[in-house]
Amino acid sequence: MSRGSARSLLGALASVVVAAAVWEVFARSGVFSTALTPSLAAIVPALGRMLADGTLLLHTLYTLYRILLGLALAAVIGIPIGMLMGRFGWAERFVLPLVSVLSPIPSLAWVPIFILWFGLGDAASIALVLYAATFPFILNTWTGVRSVNRIWIRAAEAMGAERGRLFRKIVLPGALPFVIAGARQAFARSWIAVVGGEMIAATNWGLGWVIFDSKEYLNADVMLATLLVIGLLGLGFERLVFQLMERRTVGRWGMVRTART
Amino acid sequence: MSAAISHLELRQISYVYDAGGRAVPALQDITFGVGASEFVCVVGRSGCGKTTLLNILAGFLGPTRGEVRIGGKAVTGKGLDRGIVFQDFAQLFPWRTAQRNVEFGLEMKGVPRAERVETARGFLRLVGLEAFAAAYPHELSGGMQQRAAIARALAYNPSVLLMDEPFAALDALTRDEMQRFLVDVWRETRKTVVYVTHNVAEAVYLADRIVVLTPHPGTVRAEVKVPLPRPRDPLSVEFVEAQRRVLDFLR
């Protein structure tokens, strides 16, 4: 392990310890009853039980399935739309007003109507993720295309690149830092959408459903354990997917400074 | 050199641009020729339209009047018969290695992969960057990036090389080194070169002939031949004398 990564691990460890200590003080302070603010001594065993009986894994898989499918669909739809907007004035004029109206509507505000359309279950949650994730892809890709350095375009055109090839070989990689930023934002919004959607629209499975269901039985320890899992999954994706993706591409190419980990 | 045997000809080129409804003449009646394998520097103050002129030669701008001919044929628009090197180091594509940058023009030309790799490698060798073929642009120094850009502009074998103050952003020592290097590359490849600069010493070091532009609108003030043998010594009496002749036209 290099000195740099040892130091960043130490930093992460320190922040976890501090956060845990703050929670313990709060949990044992008596502001709420211990049933509502369970200490780590209760949360960790709850997590252990859920892991041991396999339910946590299944809930997680359901949630991941919904979020990843919704995200993938959003990327497939959003990136090309953003590209078209960046490239053609007519596409920009047509899409931008729609995006400006739809994008500020919180995804959760759509839950009731999506339940009416898609019923309870996977489809409503996936549609919700799709709604939440598409706009970050569109807006960031659009910005990315517009901020491609003009000199790359000039140099490429001087060497005979035109239309399709110019787009594929210059605009696409040139816009990549923004597309990755869009993916990050889309992912963050997707978590909100999927957990919120599952609370209301899911039946029996999903991390959001667990949280909501636990409320019925006052299982604060299960709720908090699940929140912890969601946080850890977010961290995992940031480290293993987004940072890696960035380091292998735009970081390697010197187009962005990557996080030191 | 008479216009009849010029490889590159500029015939009465004028360029007028629109500044908020007002027509501003940037270039007026620019006429000169550049012989095959000749090295011509276009010298002028900032704002004399020399970059506009280069953009017209490159085909990025269409002249308001006049025409550009290469090998006797009028050219309009961009083309692989011209290679271009800009001042900005950022001209290389950051997502491509030095090797892949140099391959770009060949790729556009439809040259098969194996041949492309071979040719690009040869031009990297020519500019002394063979050891850095796998490096990405941000890993190269400014001078090395400009070398790679020169290799890229030469690799697809254009007959004319257009250069827009490619060394202006380099430190003085690197610039001297790059000028020597460029003369070597030019002698090796025998390209017809049009090199735009505001640096008179640089022009005298590099050029067979110097075209002096004066601004508002940009017109050819004079053409000065530099008959000094190469490699040139910037400290010699003849060199300083040639600089003075050019400077006299700029004052």
What attributes characterize this protein structure?
heterodimer; A: about 260 residues; mainly alpha; MetI-like fold; 2 domains; 10 helices; about 80% helix; B: about 250 residues; alpha/beta; Rossmann fold; about 30% strand
Explain what this protein looks like in three dimensions.
The complex is a heterodimer of chains A (261) and B (251). By secondary structure, chain A is mainly alpha-helical. Chain A has helices at residues 3-28, 40-52, 55-87, 89-102, 111-118, 122-146, 150-158, 163-201, 207-216, 220-251. The radius of gyration of chain A is 22 Å and the shape is globular. Chain B has 2 domains: 1-80 and 160-167 and 192-251, Rossmann fold; 82-157, no CATH class. Chain B has helices at residues 50-58, 98-109, 113-126, 142-155, 172-189, 200-206, 237-250; strands at residues 6-19, 22-35, 39-43, 65-70, 73-75, 82-85, 160-164, 192-197, 209-214, 219-225. A 6-stranded mixed β-sheet of chain B has the order 6-7-8-3-9-10, sandwiched between helices. Chain B has a 4-stranded antiparallel β-sheet with strand order 2-1-4-5, covered by helices on one side. The interface between A and B is medium-sized, with 23 and 27 residues.
Distance between the termini of chain A: 11 Å
The CATH architecture assignment of the largest domain in chain B turns out to be 3-Layer(aba) Sandwich
Give the tally of structural domains of chain A. 2
Q: Termini of chain B, distance in Å?
A: 26 Å
Can you tell me the CATH superfamily of the largest domain in chain A?
Answer: MetI-like
Q: Give the number of helices of chain A.
A: 10
Largest interface: A-B, 23 and 27 residues
Please count the helical segments of chain B: 7
The low-pLDDT segments of chain B are none
Which percent range describes the beta-strand content of chain B?
Answer: 25-35%
Shape annotation of chain B: globular
Strand count, sense and closure of the main sheet of chain A? none
CATH topology of the largest domain in chain B: Rossmann fold
The CATH class of the largest domain in chain B: Alpha Beta
CATH fold-level assignment of the largest domain in chain A: MetI-like fold
CATH structural architecture of the largest domain in chain A: Orthogonal Bundle
Binned, the helix content of chain B reads 25-40%
CATH class call of the largest domain in chain A: Mainly Alpha
| Sequence stretches where pLDDT stays below 50 over 5 or more residues of chain A | none
